Amino acid sequence: MGTNMVVISVVIVYLAVMVLIGYLASRKIQDNEDFLVAGRKMGPWLLAGSLAATEVGGGSTMGVVEKAYGDWGFSAFWYVSAMAVAFIVLAFIAPMLRRAMVKTVPEYFTKRYGKKNGLVTAIIMMLPMVGLTAVQIIASSTILSVMTGWDYALSAFIVTVVVAVYSVMGGMYSVVYTDVVQWLFILVGMALIIPFALNAGGGFTALTANVPEAKWSMTDGTGIWTIIALVIMYIASFTVGQEAVQRYYSAKDEKSARNASIITSIVYAIFAFIPAFIGILMYGMVQNGLIDGTVMANQGANYALPLMAVEVLPSFVVGMLFAALISATMSSASSNLLAAGSIFTNDIYSQYFNKNADDKHLLKMIRWTMFVVCGLSLFIAVANFTDIITLLVFSFTLRAGGAFIPYLVGHFWKRATAAGSMTSLIFGSITVALAENGFLSFGGLDPIYPALVVSAISFIGVSLLTKNKPAEDTENIKDEKTDIVNIQLSKTLK
Question: Which positions, given as ranges, span the membrane (predicted)?
């Protein structure tokens, strides 16, 4: 069997296994809650594997290799290390998120601040999901195109269809189980490329002889302010990001949610250095003439990792790596699709278009929404107008800029009001859009800084100036312990 056929065969078998897991998981679905939050039965290890696979996607693999090969050098490892820091912080927040007993972030806003806040949050959360899914399709399509020699647009179409089919079958059950398998592929597949690259380049010393010392800096490439901005962006974005918090909502209890965050942080801290080191090795191979760098120059540095794999790895290992890369991108894409379907159906469709829809109809609507988001993401992926990291950062920042402050603070500040939340959502999001598009510079700061400042000032200021009235169409969120006490009290009175 030819090299190309071996590679394709490995990937096809892998994809078939993912679809099979999705099908088996779909048999667990009994109602809407099973599909969205896996019946709230997930333990810490399953959740950690799912969280790790969800946030490590095209940006954390191919994107980091691209940045390490390019301007960031070895300091590109901070892109993933910042996630590790964020999940340590989330370990303290996760129990509170689990306690809220909601299915989506906008549902929390609806219960806490009223339906208008819930609708605005749903719109703000939905828009980045298209971009986030597109990022993963871009990465997957690049891999498939290099691997098979197929046209990029055709590869993007195939990837989109595969992701859509397996994602809509089993909901959160399917996503979590496939995520755990995919995370194992990511770790093994990415790690395997390093010893083979070193061997092909004549050892570490020979391979890195022409790598400038500056590229080994731990901070110079990214810059300290970018590193801080990444940490802040991840904390804010993951706290309100549906694809992340939906895992916490799925935890069987608060302790499982907290422990899952800690485990994920440790895994990220270890994994972060692998793609950054691969990017440096790739740079050395190009400088030494072992790999023709014209392809990156002509088509973009996001082709760095697939091209390196084809050059230095045995065919079976190439198949393993490509399966790992597709694992990284598909796990993130499926999570984003589920998040988009959850938000639209739970917080827009069932609230404004069909209030009397039963579970069966809502499940159908979730799946249709996921297909529509796939189509929009495919369009963006085929256009391929920007690099992976740029699109990811904008998507993360947009949803965090306005929603983070009212979402987090609203859990423990009783004085927070609906007017304060709405002002924060609108002004914070507008600040992100203006800063990202160059209309306002804010002294050259990353958009996440001014967005959070504007959001906090708006939220606190307006909340203090307005009455703390619960909206007529809302109810205060109660934790599980309060619900249990009320039930026991009711039984006692009877």
Answer: 6-25, 45-65, 77-97, 118-140, 152-176, 183-202, 222-241, 262-283, 303-326, 365-382, 388-409, 416-435, 447-466
Q: Does residue 447 contact residue 401 with C-beta atoms inside 8 Å?
A: yes
- 239's CB contacts (< 8 A; 6+ apart) are 90, 93, 97, 245, 400, 404, 407, 408
Would the pLDDT of 288 be above 60?
yes
- Domains of the chain with bracketed CATH: 3-385 (1.20.1730.10)
| AA letter at 97 | L
- Dist. CA 228–CA 305, nearest whole Å: 27
Please tell me the distance from the alpha carbon of residue 446 to that of residue 205, in angstroms, as a whole number.
37
Q: Shortest CA distance to 173 belongs to which of 104, 247, 95?
A: 247
Q: What is the SS3 assignment for 432?
A: helix
Question: Averaging pLDDT over each range in 37-51, 59-73, 448-462, which range is the top one?
Answer: 448-462
- The dihedral through the CA atoms of 399, 404, 408, 414 has a sign that is negative
Q: What's the pLDDT tens digit per position in 416-450? A: 999 999 999 999 888 888 887 767 666 666 777 88
Task: Confirm if 145 and 329 have CB atoms less than 8 A apart.
Answer: no
| Angle between helices 78-99 and 242-250 in degrees, nearest 10 | 50
**DSSP code of residue 251:** B
In this structure, what is the dihedral angle of CA atoms 26, 265, 317, 77, given to the nearest 10 degrees?
130
